[in-house]
């Protein structure tokens, strides 16, 4: 199968946006990096440079943190009523919907994901997240608490709790859902009244910068949202270690999550982490086979497998193994791989050369160790970073392809005999615990297995269902804290107990 090439004509806002050298958003102004340096952004479908973006470093992070601190402590932001704050967040959601096509094109160009997916999922989900969080701004409540202090007999008190914003937040996000991750991070921070320094991934900085323009258009006061593009080891590390930050929120690799945590120990910043995964997807013999084939294929191939929750270990009951895995392999072979901006494309390129090499390296290691590819197995084409949708069988539990997060379109299918403790043990046998899937028509089996899987999300007869109201996060080394839903508010607020003698 060849790589599709008929790309759409880009929105004029997109072409003009990428033409101009992009600056940093600090204190309501678009400014050059202190060093004056920029770095190139690539189109992963071709490897060509599409834009130049300011390379923020420690000095820029410091300026941004100071601006965020000023905006948090004084000025218009802390004086806004919850309702006014909520309306600003809502307006940001509206502006995103108004610019849906433009944002989807920019995301597809920068990240490589299919334009159809960016239009249907990334951008509308981001808008919905802001709309959902806007409603919370007026509902962040404390309690009144009847207390009975034993050493103050007869005394009366009025005791209550307040939930206050945690303060200035540093947010570091990855490249797999660049725009949506910016929304997951900014939405709850803004709804709760925090101020933010956001560092997008160096691979995909463009939509976050465009979002910065929409933040200004919505009318957020200067310094509430600051956006500093730059590299992880410089800008990211400076943000995680900055003493002026009260909390760091990170999404990315488990390895870097641990570095963030170390950096935060100096001054005991609050930390929330959304990290890697190696999610088990379990198909029982009574499952609706057509549904399970399509569902388990999309569980791994959606977003080219560049999903922290990708269903990358497919456990299939022995009696249906050949049929189900054959079906998934057929689905893999049917996927139209091509540039994200071709409307017919179903799977785009890996986001970068290094990610492409990483995924190809895993494929080589798996095949060298004795795994067999029943679909795909290598790269596709000579230009861009395309990898074939791949289904591996004959793997062993200790292989790298089974233990480590590949973050590519590669699933390992593993047979099991019975739904027993051995299956549960195998499904839970990784350092991760982000998500899991169960496919069965038997309600009792579905819910009892859901209870035994060590994962922050379990999908039953579906996969990759996300909603602004549904909390998402990891067990084990997949992270700390839950994003989305009202749980996300806990990450950005702290509770104050007030006790007054009457
Ligand atoms: P990464 O964890 O290095 O990058 C994520 C973000 O962290 C980026 O904004 C990056 O600039 C920043 N960062 C990197 N080093 C940092 C440091 N020392 N201090 C502060 N910030 C830092 O992920 P990378 O290298 O892009 O991908 C490697 C692997 O990580 C992938 O193959 C995948 O397995 C995993 N990953 C998981 C993601 C998830 O959603 N859970 C997202 C991206 C990658
Ligand atoms: Mg890295």
Task: Outline the fold blueprint.
Layout: H1 12-19, E1 24-26, E2 29-31, E3 38-43, E4 48-54, H2 58-73, H3 82-98, H4 100-111, H5 115-136, E5 144-145, E6 157-165, E7 168-172, H6 178-192, E8 195-199, H7 206-218, E9 225-227, H8 232-241, E10 247-251, H9 254-265, E11 270-274, E12 280-283, H10 289-301, E13 313-317, H11 321-334, H12 353-368, E14 372-375, E15 390-393, H13 400-403, E16 410-416, H14 421-427, E17 432-433, E18 435-439, H15 443-452, E19 457-460, E20 475-476, E21 479-480, H16 487-492, E22 493-501
Bound molecules: 1,4-dihydronicotinamide adenine dinucleotide and magnesium ion.
Describe this structure in words.
- By secondary structure, this protein is of the alpha/beta class.
- Helices cover 39% and strands 20% of the residues.
- A 7-stranded mixed β-sheet has the order 14-15-16-13-12-18-19, sandwiched between helices. It has a 6-stranded mixed β-sheet with strand order 9-8-7-10-11-21, with helices on both faces.
- The protein is globular.
- The termini are far apart.
- The mean pLDDT is 97.
- 1,4-dihydronicotinamide adenine dinucleotide (NAI) binds next to α8, α9 and α12.
- Magnesium ion binds next to loops.
Detail the poorly predicted runs: none
How many DSSP E strands? 22
The distinct bound ligands, ions and cofactors come out as: 1,4-dihydronicotinamide adenine dinucleotide, magnesium ion
Strand residue content:
15-25%
What is the CA–CA distance across the termini? 79 Å
Structural class by helix and strand composition: alpha/beta
> Largest beta sheet: what is the strand line-up?
14-15-16-13-12-18-19
Number of helices: 16
Overall shape: it is: globular
**Average pLDDT number:** 97
- What percent of the residues sit in helical stretches (DSSP H or I)? 25-40%
């Amino acid at each position: 199968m060849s790589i599709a090439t008929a790309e759409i004509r880009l929105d004029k806002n997109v072409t003009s946006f990428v033409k101009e050298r992009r600056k940093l958003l600090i204190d309501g102004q678009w400014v050059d990096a202190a060093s004056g340096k920029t770095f190139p952004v690539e189109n992963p479908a071709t490897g060509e440079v599409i834009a130049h973006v300011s390379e923020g470093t420690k000095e820029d992070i410091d300026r941004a943190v100071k601006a965020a601190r000023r905006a948090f402590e004084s000025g218009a932001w802390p004086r806004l009523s919850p309702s006014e704050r909520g309306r600003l967040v809502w307006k940001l959601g509206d502006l995103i919907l108004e610019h849906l096509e433009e944002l989807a094109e920019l995301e597809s160009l920068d990240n490589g994901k299919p334009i159809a997916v960016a239009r249907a999922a990334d951008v509308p989900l981001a808008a919905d997240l802001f709309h959902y969080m806007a409603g919370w701004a007026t509902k962040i409540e404390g309690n009144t608490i009847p207390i009975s202090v034993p050493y103050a007999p007869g005394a009366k008190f009025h005791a209550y709790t307040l939930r206050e914003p945690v303060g200035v937040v540093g947010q570091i996000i990855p490249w797999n859902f660049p725009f949506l991750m910016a929304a997951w991070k900014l939405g709850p921070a803004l709804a709760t009244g925090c101020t933010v320094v956001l560092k997008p991934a160096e691979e995909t900085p463009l939509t976050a910068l465009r979002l910065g323009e929409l933040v200004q258009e919505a009318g957020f006061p200067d310094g509430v949202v600051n956006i500093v593009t730059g590299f992880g080891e410089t800008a990211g590390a400076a943000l995680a270690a900055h003493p002026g930050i009260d909390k760091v929120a990170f999404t990315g690799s488990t390895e870097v999550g641990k570095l963030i945590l170390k950096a935060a120990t100096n001054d005991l910043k609050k930390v929330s982490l959304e990290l890697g995964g190696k999610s088990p997807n379990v198909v029982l013999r009574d499952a609706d086979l057509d549904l399970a084939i399509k569902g388990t294929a999309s569980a791994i191939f959606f977003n080219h497998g560049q999903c922290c929750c990708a269903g990358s270990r497919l456990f299939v009951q022995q009696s249906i193994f050949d049929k189900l895995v054959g079906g998934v392999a057929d689905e893999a072979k049917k996927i139209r791989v091509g540039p994200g901006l071709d409307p017919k494309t179903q799977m785009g390129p890996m986001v970068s050369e290094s990610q492409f090499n990483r995924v190809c390296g895993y494929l080589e290691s798996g095949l060298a160790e004795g795994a067999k590819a029943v679909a795909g197995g290598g790269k596709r084409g000579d230009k861009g970073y395309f990898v074939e949708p791949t289904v591996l069988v004959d793997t062993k539990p200790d292989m790298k392809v089974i233990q480590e997060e590949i973050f590519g379109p590669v699933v390992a299918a593993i047979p099991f005999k019975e739904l027993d403790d051995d299956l549960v043990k195998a499904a839970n046998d990784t350092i991760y615990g982000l998500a899991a899937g169960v496919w069965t028509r038997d309600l009792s089996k579905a819910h009892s297995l859901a209870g035994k899987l060590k994962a922050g999300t379990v999908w039953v007869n579906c996969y990759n269902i996300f909603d602004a109201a549904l909390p998402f996060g990891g067990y084990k080394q997949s992270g700390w804290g839950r994003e989305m839903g009202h749980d996300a508010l806990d990450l950005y607020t702290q509770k104050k107990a007030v006790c007054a003698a009457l």
